[in-house]
Amino acid sequence: MDKRFDPSTYEQKWQRFWAENEFFRAAEASDREPYCIMIPPPNVTGELHIGHALQSTIQDLLIRWRRMQGRNALWLPGTDHAGIAVQLMVERHLESRGESREELGREAFLERVWEWKHEYHGNIRRQLDQLGASCDWSRERFTLDEGLSRAVRYAFVELHRRGLVHRGEYMVNWSPGLDTAVSDLEVEMKEVEGRLYHIAYPIEGSDDVVVVATTRPETMLGDTGVAYHPEDERYRHLAGRSAVLPIQGRSIPFVADEYVERDFGSGLVKVTPFHDPNDFEIGKRHDLPAVQVIDRRGRMTAEAGPDFEGLDRFEARQRVVERLEAEGRLTRSERYVHNVGHCQRSGVSIEPLISIQWFLDVSEMAARALRANRAGRLALVPESWEKTWEHWLENIRPWCISRQLWWGHQIPAWYDESGNCYVAESEDEAVEMAGTTALTQDPDVLDTWFSSGLWPMSTLGWPEPTRDFDTFYPTQVLVTGFDILFFWVARMVMFGLEFTDEVPFDTVHLTGLVRDAEGQKMSKTKGNTVDPLELVDEFGADALRFTLAALDSPGRDVPLDLERMAGYRAFGNKIWNAVRFVLSNLGEGFEPEAIDAGRLEAPERWIRSRLATTAAEVDASFEAFRFDEACHRLYHFFWGELCDWYLELTKPALHGGAERPFVREVLLETLDESLRLLHPTMPFLTEELWQRLPGTTERHGETIALAPFPEHREAWEDRPLETAMNDLFEIVTAVRRIRSDLGLPPRTELDLHLAPENDVLTELIDGQRAALAFLCGLGDLVLGAPPEGSARDRAGATELGVVVPEQALGDEERARLEKEAARLEELIAAATRQLENRQFLDKAPPEVVEGKRQSLRELERRLRTVEAGL
User: Fold this and answer.
1) CA atoms within 13 A on the CB side of 736
2) Which of 765, 786, 780 minimizes the C-alpha distance to 721?
3) Residue 864 is inside which H or E element, if any?
4) 8-state DSSP, 489
5) How do residues 199-257 score in pLDDT, each as one tens digit?
6) Which of 868, 733, 859 is nearest to 792 (CA)?
7) 443: three-class secondary structure by DSSP
8) Which pLDDT score is estimated for 88?
9) What DSSP element (H or E) covers 442?
10) Residue 148: partners with Cβ closer than 8 Å, 6 or more residues away
11) Is 646 helix (H, G, I), strand (E, B) or coil?
12) Which residues pair with 618 in a beta bridge?
């Protein structure tokens, strides 16, 4: 083995090895229990960001763990056509070349998008491969491939047949920047500083006026009424009367409506049915006309009047305010901070518009999704999201599923020349229904989330009967970000229950946001984003994966600390060197004997016990989605118990200082099982090292990825021995601390006196004299009370004393120890005064006081050691 640890020399070698041998291909049907995870499909032409890396790490960890447990494990990959994002990307590319979508026409434009898709589609796999993803690429899907398109058409037609899909004129969230309707979930509310304008509306046939306040004076050009609360005594006299709309001069009626808040502003509301969702409902209740004064591109229409036609809506606002001031109708304006909806994709403020759209009634679907969660058929991890889940589903509104785009699933509806609509899975079927070929397909496409909502079913072949669907549906786990809990997760649950009566997955593990080390949200504006593939180049994929898994704590965001990642790279280096040490001590052609457990001595029985416990704890942590706890346990076992202690304990036996049976065999066994435990989190390193261990492939097969995950061996556990060994380690630590305090050279042999408090520990110490002598640098080990004048300490259940062989202290060394003793005496005096201060004891938290007492005890111990040395 190379002394230098360099992940770049082996990582992609093993990814190619796994792919070429199709180790990750799941069986269509198998006696093994199925375990399936669907990848949240990234945008087909996108790049993986650090959030993708977190989710991919957790999915891969789970799938590798279950595969090693013998499950028929399928991690199904795929990509989303991402209607809005991809169309925008291609349109911008066309603009850079002086072309436009409209000039090309729909068919030619879609050809360009497909070319773009084919050019960039492979990026996702290449990036996932670099992260070590063990996907079954033979089953890769795309939301616009033929099978999934068939599923989308079937679902739309079936929902229409059930009376849940309908087309009509509704108020929608319109994105002028994208020129399409967007759903409520795609609207992000932002706090905006604007102004509140108070406008005087004359009462028709009178010299009186009423004052109405608005933040959007440009919309008043489309007012068709003024509303007041029916119980508001101030305005009851206006019943049956009208106001004169300023600037426009037309007569608009006063209407009484309970929506109006009497105590807000003047208690009057201008009604613009075409440009406000609440006004739209008031207009419907009072049969008010709807006048469109802002178009789909955010510009003023002819209905706004010749002075404003063609102006951008915000420019028109200023012009309207100027006209109102000139006509004496603007009574006042004031600074006003309020929330304004913005399109998540474009960042442009939303324009509420009346539009003919396709809608899906999801009220009963949402109720079923709620019941499934309450009945325990669906678990959200962490559970804290369940209240949010319930609130959203209880207040759900019809879903606007049509989008005014070209890239996507074109709505399977055709119109004849009379405007009659025929919903069908194919044009031939529509022709048969209509009795004519003179049909035109609806130009709109379906919301991307519609096809994504079918993902767990459609990727397995639904609605056709397939072996994959029978084997893997419903799936087991979904790993995704909390930010798409309702965009995607809820819709998959609703569709799954609607079409199959099954929840599509048992558990949803919701990850937090990956933030920078200071806890700040990552953004290009702040310049604190990180490219996961650059981190792979710097630290290795295993260190990145281990860091992300170790930081994934339920309900918390992930602070990405690069220093910690460097620490986990060092962890990989530690494991590398441990294997180098073991292999160098096994020798060429080592053939292990069968281990006779009855002949094993304490160190070997101890490491087996710790391995058994660690295996059980890691398995339980994975089961509970506590990847942070699993990583902590793995790190502690590998670095602390295996490398720092057991490898040291083997050296006397390996180097002839004390014979112990089966040391090499236990070393090999422990490394084999430890690497298998670590494999789900660090797949590349563990494969590289496991393949080097003698006999592993003969025992378990070609790859660690298919080797059995270590099981809990209760017979290996020995709690009393673990306790005794911990006491022995405390003895070693105490002796080494005394050496450090006295500044003794490493080769200085000490006499160690030990007085254990129980027979188990006494027997252990007596049996491990050679190991203690090696670890502590001893000349003699005496079981008995420490003599007077020795440097004393307590380690667990043992009183100990260290006697340094008589030697003359040099002047320089004596001066150093005397200076250290004086310093410790000053610190002890200061700590004692503080702990005798009643005011401090009364005000300080108990844990602070206890910390001070522990510090004092440590200072006193060190002073005794220095005095003994002097």
Assistant:
1) 11
2) 765
3) helix 846-869
4) I
5) 999 999 999 999 999 999 999 999 999 999 999 999 999 999 999 999 999 999 999 99
6) 868
7) coil
8) 86
9) none
10) 141, 142, 451, 454, 458, 459
11) helix
12) none
Residue with tokens 């992940």: 7
CA-CA distance, 392 to 483, in Å (whole number)? 13
pLDDT band at 347 (very low <50, low <70, confident <90, very high): confident
Count the alpha carbons within 13 Å of 568 in the hemisphere toward its beta carbon: 29
Going along 413-550, which residue ranges are E strands? 413-415, 421-423, 440-441, 445-446, 475-481, 505-511, 514-516
Question: Please, are residues 476 and 520 in contact by the beta-carbon 8 Å criterion?
Answer: no
| pLDDT greater than 80 at residue 529 | no
Dist. CA 763–CA 774, nearest whole Å: 18
What gap in Å lies between CA 646 and CA 29, rounded to an integer? Answer: 44
Mean pLDDT over all residues of the chain?
92
How far apart, in Å, are the Cα atoms of 830 and each of 240, 357, 846, 851? Answer: 87, 78, 19, 14
Which parts of 692-823 are beta strand (E)? Answer: 750-756, 778-783, 791-795, 798-803
Token couple for 261: 């808040």
Supply the DSSP string of 403-428, one letter for each residue. ES-SSS-B-SEEE-TT--EEE-SSHH
Tell me: cis bond preceding 661? Omega within 30 of 0 counts: no
Q: Strand 141-142 relative to strand 78-79: parallel, antiparallel, unpaired? A: parallel
| Burial bucket for residue 591 (CB in 10 Å: 0-12, 13-18, 19+) | exposed
815-836 residue pLDDT tens: 888 888 899 899 999 999 988 8
3-state secondary structure at position 657: coil
Q: What is the pLDDT of residues 748-794, one digit of tens each?
A: 888 999 999 999 899 999 999 999 999 999 989 999 999 987 888 88
pLDDT above 70: residue 809: no
Residue 137's CB: how many other CB atoms inside 10 A?
A: 18
**What is the b/e burial string over 149-188, where b = at least 16 CB atoms within 10 angstroms of the residue's CB?**
bbbbbbbbbbbbeeebbebeebbbbbbbbbebbbbebbbe
User: How far is 633 from 108, CA to CA, in rounded Å?
Assistant: 57
CA dihedral 786, 788, 792, 794 (to 10 degrees): 50
Residue 559 preceded by cis peptide, ω within 30: no
Judge contact between 459 and 139, C-beta under 8 A. Answer: yes
CA triplet 167, 173, 174: central angle to 5 degrees? 95
